[in-house]
Design a protein that fits this description.
The complex is a heterodimer of chains A (about 260) and B (about 270). Chain A has about 260 residues and is of the alpha/beta class. Helices cover about 40% and strands about 25% of the residues of chain A. Chain A has a single domain (about 5-100, about 170-260), classed as P-loop containing nucleotide triphosphate hydrolases (Rossmann fold). In chain A, helix 8 links the parallel strand 7 (about 170-175) and strand 8 (about 200-205). Chain B has helices at about 1-20, 20-25, 55-95, 95-110, 115-125, 130-145, 145-160, 165-170, 175-210, 225, 245-265. The chains are: A alpha/beta (about 260), B mainly alpha (about 270).
């Protein structure tokens, strides 16, 4: 579709000795694009998110195929080189802030660690910039708090702030709204859209919630039983789904969207 | 529990105050032999009597407390550090490296500890200066005592290795060294602290065992174990209970350490 895509993949992942979880999952992403990845629970969405950054435990998972980011295959890269890409060119927002934030470290320390992973100094300016971008307080008092002392919504914002700290070209968000209530969900989605517009960050938004994907994505890929069965614009996925699984998936979301007048 | 801990803290503080100020508090030089008064019973001059060479027992107990109670924590710190390095890397790297390390730990743990200590100590020179013998004894204890702690720390790190925040830190591009030191360190600190506290009484006892067998701290420097060699002579022990002073102090210190460390564990 694109002359020079930001990311293109063809991935097969199997946990040792079992049937593949992902079977030749192929899709492309353009610069600055928001691509949604829909699929039911257990369809391999989170495995895909980790496999894209080559974060799966290679002792347990067999990965084949390629993940080409800016014309370089991440799966063939050595660990030190991968570390320079993770968090700087491609970053990941995990599902649950309760698990992804270190309970023993203050928010400020965790932000600083995220900064020091790629750049020298304490990055105070960049950190307050990132916190402002996700509408979190930038004062010292907030930075001194521990993850247990902030709300889940704030925790998710902190994760996003860490992820956008180095202005990555691609942000992978794995179910970033599933732990949140409806209002906070909308806020986080708005936030991702805002990052996309302000910094031109391409976003791979992984979710089981088609309504959420329809609200912010340019295109949606549908993952079923470990393979991408359909990948098209939001419009076409909803208006004329080609695959039976997509039809099943869109049925309820469509009703909701029609009700909302979209 | 709280009262027991308070008691333990007060007792330890008292013993440490005496241990630190031993050279000033001791009524006599620990090595000076009052030739005219060997095996003296307690008196105003010798509060706990003298040993068979006529040395003041109270002064020797003070200095022994200093030797045992200052170097045991040092040895515990050394062994906890070794355990942290070995256990944390094994737990973090996992796979065959973890299996290999844990096999080494099992081997270490399956060897009779005292026998191992005796062997290693016997291989090293015994005709050294007292000061060197003390250092040597506790360095051996520190170097040999890491295995059990390493297993506990390895298990702790293995559990954390698969946690969400380690995955998040890896996704942010943190290096393994920083991950271990900054992300995992604070999370295993309570475990390290508990291991450190639990090791102290073990090392005090181990030194006592070694010294009782003459393989520990060399004469004339006293240690709690070395002083208990006097007890090998059972005769008249019943009528000379003051000879049990070092044993009583050892017992009190171990109990206090146990009370202190177990209550810390409850807290952590």
């Amino acid at each position: 579709m694109n002359q020079n895509p930001l990311l293109s993949t063809s991935l097969t992942v199997a946990w040792s000795g079992k049937l593949p979880v992902l079977r030749e999952v192929a899709f492309e992403m353009a610069r600055g694009e928001i691509l949604g990845l829909a699929g039911s629970s257990g369809s391999g969405k989170s495995t895909l998110a980790l496999a894209l950054l080559n974060l799966l435990d290679r002792r347990r998972a067999t990965i084949s195929g390629h993940v080409t980011f800016e014309n370089r295959n991440l799966l063939a890269m050595a660990e030190p080189e991968l570390r320079r890409i993770r968090g700087r060119a491609i970053s990941l927002v995990l599902q649950s802030p309760a698990a992804a934030l270190n309970p023993a470290l203050r928010i400020g320390t965790q932000m600083r660690e995220a900064w020091r992973a790629h750049q020298a100094g304490d990055g105070a300016e960049a950190i307050s910039g990132a916190l402002a971008a996700v509408s979190l307080p930038e004062d010292a008092q907030f930075l001194r708090r521990y993850p247990a002392q902030i709300s889940t919504g704030q925790g998710q914002r902190v994760l996003i702030a860490m992820a956008i700290l180095h202005r990555p070209q691609l942000l992978i968000a794995d179910e970033p709204t599933s732990a949140l209530d409806a209002i906070t969900q909308t806020e986080v989605l708005d936030l991702l859209e805002h990052c996309n517009r302000q910094f031109g960050t391409a976003i791979l938004l992984i979710s089981h919630d088609l309504g959420a994907l329809a609200a912010v994505c340019h295109r949606v890929a549908v993952l079923s039983e470990g393979a991408v069965v359909e990948c098209d614009t939001v419009e076409r996925i909803f208006r004329s789904p080609a695959h039976a699984f997509t039809r099943q998936l869109t049925r309820h979301a469509r009703a909701a969207l029609e009700f909302a007048g979209k | 529990m709280k009262r027991a801990r308070l008691f333990a803290v007060v007792a330890l503080a008292l013993v440490y105050a005496v241990a630190l100020g031993a050279r000033f508090l001791a009524p006599a030089d620990y090595a000076f032999q009052f030739r005219e008064a060997p095996n003296a019973p307690p008196s105003v001059r010798f509060l706990l009597g003298t040993d068979e060479l006529g040395r003041d027992r109270l002064s020797r107990v003070f200095v022994a407390a200093q030797t045992s109670l200052l170097l045991a924590p040092a040895a515990a710190a050394l062994s906890t550090l070794l355990a942290a390095l070995i256990g944390a890397t094994a737990g973090y790297i996992g796979g065959w490296w973890e299996k290999l390390t844990m096999a080494g730990v099992d081997l270490f743990l399956s060897l009779p500890w005292l026998f191992l200590l005796l062997t290693v100590r016997a291989v090293l020179p015994l005709d050294t200066t007292p000061a060197l013998s003390v250092m040597l004894t506790f360095a051996i204890l520190g170097c040999l005592g890491w295995a059990a702690s390493a297993r506990v720390i390895c298990a702790g790190v293995r559990q954390l290795r698969n946690s969400g925040f380690v995955l998040n830190a890896r996704a942010l591009g943190c290096s393994p060294a920083r991950l271990l030191a900054v992300q995992l360190g604070p999370n295993i600190k309570p475990v390290l602290w508990a291991q450190f506290l639990v090791s102290i009484p073990v090392f005090v006892l181990a030194e006592a065992n070694l010294s009782m067998l003459g393989l520990g701290v060399a004469e004339p420097l006293p240690s709690l174990g070395g002083m208990m060699r006097e007890l090998e002579n059972f005769s008249d022990l019943g009528s000379q209970l003051w000879r049990l002073a070092p044993l009583a102090l050892l017992f009190a210190c171990i109990t206090a350490f146990q009370l202190f460390s177990s209550s810390r564990e409850v807290q952590a």
